[in-house]
């Protein structure tokens, strides 16, 4: 038996109440039918796209969770499926959901994609304490979205459906654009006629039923998206179609209260009725509001791998894949099982290494001692248990290319996925949790001279008491000095 697909929800009227549920709590009836597609064990429905729906799935070979989008053939025209598959296979960007594999049977086309565990942007906004994003966080995410749209426009692709539940958040709360069901690849100078997308996100030119520039449609939708991010509300609302149409045609919206002057200026440019006056994506990227907050640069595009990583190939050889098949799948961009497994392992390792890098902090340099503290510097040097030790941490290299000798040697080797050490966020991040890290210094020094097994208790107590007291006093002074440097501000947990 096969799963009877639930028809995609494409209602043109949106309400905030539609987003009160969590991304993973989308209701789905207990459906009987297929539980496996290829190497993927299918679980519950976690979302709906413009066409089709998305299920949580488990990749059995790598123990990795992924998302599988179902495109039912009975409900969609063949050209609609081919268009979405063609687009998602051709794009690759850090802020666009990555495609791993494409499968097909007599009923559906299945798109195996990267999983964004924190759900969609609208759910994140609704669950925030003030029901909207603070400007700093809104700017960070909006930059990432703009960088992805710039990549799409550079490749002559328009999305046309950049609503908040099509912007997903990964484990690090970075934006990932998804759902390319309404996207289209344009030729130079091509104008579009189709009216599509959610009603309150449509630009004026769609309400006037004119031919329109697809790129300028994405710019208008970015304006609506920015408004929603900074207010938690939609700029154009009404009980009747005519009310919404009138507001859109005049760009009549209430100015956000929690947005700076530069943010207001960008918003007014994005929501410009005249398409000739509306900026293009390059002009949006150059706006002064996006230049604020050093450290959040626009991310460049990231090409698909062109050379095989020896570590991943070794793991795949252990799984039974041949080097020749894997190499051919990557070169041909086949998005078959071999390429899907390669990309799933690559993403798994990249996320693991990235999590270690994010949690790594510089070592604390003790302050200069006072004359009263000089006697502590005469204590014997010991390994400090509080300093983190990272083992097996590595970064993947894209410069390796397999040659004939390498292929033969890899066939004879056996390897498994490297185990990365668990690193507590509160103990390694330098910044907000620094006080927690410093507090743990005192605790770690109080136990670092614990008795080794088999050592007589009398000798250990007599020889190590002074050392323990000295280290404890030094740790206390380090904590006090850092608290003074940070103006005694305690960051809430």
TrEMBL record:
PROSITE patterns: PROTEIN_KINASE_ATP, PROTEIN_KINASE_DOM, PROTEIN_KINASE_ST. It holds the Pfam family Pkinase. Keywords: ATP-binding, Kinase, Nucleotide-binding, Serine/threonine-protein kinase, Transferase. ATP binds at residue 74. InterPro entries: Kinase-like_dom_sf (IPR011009), Prot_kinase_dom (IPR000719), Protein_kinase_ATP_BS (IPR017441), Ser/Thr_kinase_AS (IPR008271). Residues 40-290 form the Protein kinase domain. Coiled coil: none annotated. One of its GO terms (cellular component) is cytoplasm. GO terms for biological process: intracellular signal transduction. Its EC number is 2.7.11.1. Gene3D superfamilies: Transferase(Phosphotransferase) domain 1. It is an enzyme of class 2 (transferase). One of its GO terms (molecular function) is protein serine/threonine kinase activity. It catalyses: L-seryl-[protein] + ATP = O-phospho-L-seryl-[protein] + ADP + H(+); L-threonyl-[protein] + ATP = O-phospho-L-threonyl-[protein] + ADP + H(+). Belongs to the protein kinase superfamily. PANTHER family: KP78A-RELATED, MAP/MICROTUBULE AFFINITY-REGULATING KINASE. This is non-specific serine/threonine protein kinase. It comes from Dipodomys ordii (Ord's kangaroo rat).
